[in-house]
Write a structure and sequence with these properties.
Elements lengths: L5 H5 L6 H15 L1 H24 L3 H29 L1 H20 L4 H14 L2 H12 L2 H8 L1 H23 L11 H7 L2 H11 L6 H6 L3 H11 L5 H13 L6 H8 L5 H16 L2 H6 L1 H6 L5 H29 L1 H24 L2 E4 L1 H9 L13 E3 L2 H11 L5 H12 E2 L2 H17 L1 H12 L5 H29 L1 H23 L8 H8 E3 L5 E3 L2
Antiparallel strand pairs: 1-2, 1-3, 4-5
Helix pairs in contact: 2-7, 3-9, 3-10, 4-5, 4-6, 4-26, 5-6, 5-7, 5-10, 5-11, 7-8, 7-25, 8-19, 8-25, 9-19, 13-14, 15-26, 16-25, 16-26, 16-27, 19-20, 19-24, 20-24, 20-25, 20-27, 21-23, 22-23, 24-25, 26-27
Length: 542
């Protein structure tokens, strides 16, 4: 963006509130479109897992690695994200991320073996840093009274991306019966390759947004910052915003990444870091990525057919979208703290319901089950030694399935076998899964990014946001990596029970430490949480 003189700037017509709101909405949606791509990518792999596992004959830990390696990419990228954002600006980093997504899509869709597919997924993980940079950009463009709503757009776009992928995956699976050239060996390539279309759209849209005005001020480009602010607030507020940002920046000299890290982990920032770390762990470890990245697999555990399980993922996506909209419309009214605590309480109830449903399930391999399998064109002959056997849990059944079928066949036959043998109160499980998705997307899903964009001051934000996202990524990675292993060795009931316990502990911790930040500027929040004492040493605000 080229700078203009003060005289030329003063001739710019006053920006009315409607135009300002329209521009903020436009910039926020475009920056957050990376969330759409992230959601698309997560949901795509959830549909592809079954077919990839069969084609490459993967173990449960290999499946976990395939899905979880993307988060490893996130973790590595986050070490560099802050420095890159400070050096090149938020916009250029977002453009680079969009290009990386496209590379990941091409490598994944044309993978010739497991290792190449893991590489493609890993590259995509590097691009997942878009969530952090988008939150950073939106937090620096949106006015204080709208920041929570627009940062929450990140989560909305994630859910919309997931919904689109669920729809595409469902119709691809459904079309396998009618279109001869779509089959088990290539359907997953179509699922993953579809992502290239929104990648290209995002790159085109990013070229139309301005740079972050707060970053421009840190670079001494205040006139350009005024131009951007003039597009997002009434012009009468521009100078006050520039002065406020300049004042917060001038409080300390411009820090290097190392200096910012030292500042972040000093005693005065202890409360801020504690809030961010606890929130990140809870958000990542309550099981969202297990449901999102393995959605069809989760529904298979209830006893649904392949097609029905993919259909349920569409319903899942719709629930996520609706309740993310609830969060966006209430985050400024109810506040961050209320939504967080209410959401965690509902998550506890949801996981308890899911646990009870799976815990009470029984699996009977009788003649009726064999007939049902043969009707689905499943070779049931290997199951002959187990006819008449009743299983008390899904782990025992899966062990016997794995004993008589090859690694290539297990991913394709497990769902139909569970479907034919299960006796379950499915209502408890379905309520639990959908209630969890609703609670997550109206609370800790979007609100975490709002909190991250608000509690860190300008002097540490470029390293603090990636750090907080790093903690969340590690937490999410552990869920993604070990979920297939947990299903195989612990069973569905105990897996969701673990998530419920984490949510309950997290709710108690948030009750004690989480502040309310709505309607406060970033600078005001910093003053509330951290302040210098008369001796010049910063201490925690009480």
């Amino acid at each position: 963006m080229s700078a203009i003189s003060d005289e030329e700037f003063n001739k710019v017509p006053t920006m009315n509130k409607n135009s300002a709101a329209s521009n903020v909405t436009k910039y926020a949606l475009i920056a957050a479109f990376g969330g759409f791509v992230f959601g698309l990518d997560a949901a795509n792999i959830s549909g592809a897992v079954r077919y990839v596992s069969s084609q490459f004959e993967l173990s449960s830990m290999q499946v976990g690695t395939l899905v979880g390696c993307a988060i490893v990419g996130v973790i590595i990228a986050l070490f560099f994200t802050g420095t890159l954002c400070e050096r090149f600006g938020r916009k250029k980093v977002l453009l680079a991320i969009a290009g990386t997504y496209s590379l990941s899509t091409l490598v994944s869709a044309f993978a010739v073996d497991y290792n190449m597919l893991v590489l493609g997924r890993f590259i995509g993980g590097v691009a997942f840093a878009s969530i952090t940079v988008s939150a950073m950009y939106i937090g620096e463009v949106a006015p204080a009274d709208k920041r929570g709503k627009f940062v929450s757009v990140n989560q909305l776009l994630i859910t919309l991306g997931s919904l689109l992928a669920f729809i595409v995956n469902y119709f691809l699976v459904k079309s396998m019966a009618d279109i001869s050239w779509i089959h088990n060996e290539n359907v997953w390539r179509l699922m993953l390759g579809f992502e290239l279309i929104p990648n290209v759209i995002w790159i085109s849209l990013l070229l139309t947004i301005p740079e972050s005005p707060r970053w421009l001020v840190t670079q001494g480009r205040e006139q350009e910052a005024r131009e951007v602010f003039a597009n997002v607030v009434p012009q009468s507020q521009v100078e006050a915003l520039v002065s406020e940002v300049r004042g917060s920046i001038d409080e300390e000299r411009k820090n290097s990444t190392l200096d910012q890290l030292k500042t972040l982990f000093r005693k005065p920032m202890r409360l801020v870091v504690l809030i961010a770390v606890c929130y990140a762990v809870v958000q990542g470890a309550t099981g969202m990525n297990a449901v999102l990245f393995y959605a069809p697999t989760v529904f298979e555990q209830v006893g649904m057919s392949v097609e029905d399980s993919f259909m349920q993922t569409i319903v899942l996506g719709l629930v996520a979208v609706v309740f993310t909209l609830v969060a966006i419309t209430t985050v400024e009214k109810l506040g961050r703290r209320v939504l967080t605590l209410a959401g965690l309480a509902l998550i506890v109830v949801a996981h308890a319901s899911t646990w009870y449903g799976f815990e009470s399930a029984r699996y009977t391999l009788d003649d009726n089950a064999i007939v049902a399998l043969e009707a689905q064109q499943i070779d049931a002959a290997p199951l002959a030694p187990y006819i008449g056997k009743t299983y008390e849990n899904d782990v025992a059944l899966k062990n016997d399935i794995a004993a008589v079928y090859s690694k290539k066949d297990v991913p394709l036959v497990s769902g139909p076998i569970i479907n034919s043998t299960i006796e379950i109160s499915a209502g408890f499980v379905l309520f639990g899964i959908f209630a969890f998705l609703a609670a997550f997307n109206m609370s800790i899903g979007p609100v975490m990014w709002v909190i991250f964009s608000e509690v860190f001051s300008n002097r540490v934000r470029s390293v603090a946001l990636p750090f907080a996202a790093l903690v969340q990524s590690i937490s999410s990675y552990l869920i993604q990596q070990f979920f297939p292993w947990q299903l195989e060795h612990l069973g569905a009931a105990n897996t969701f029970l673990n998530y419920g316990v984490i949510a309950f502990v997290g709710m108690l911790v948030m009750l004690m430490i989480l502040p309310e930040t709505k309607n406060k500027s970033i600078e005001q929040i910093e003053k509330d949480l951290v302040r210098p004492d008369p001796a010049g040493k910063a201490e925690l605000a009480t």
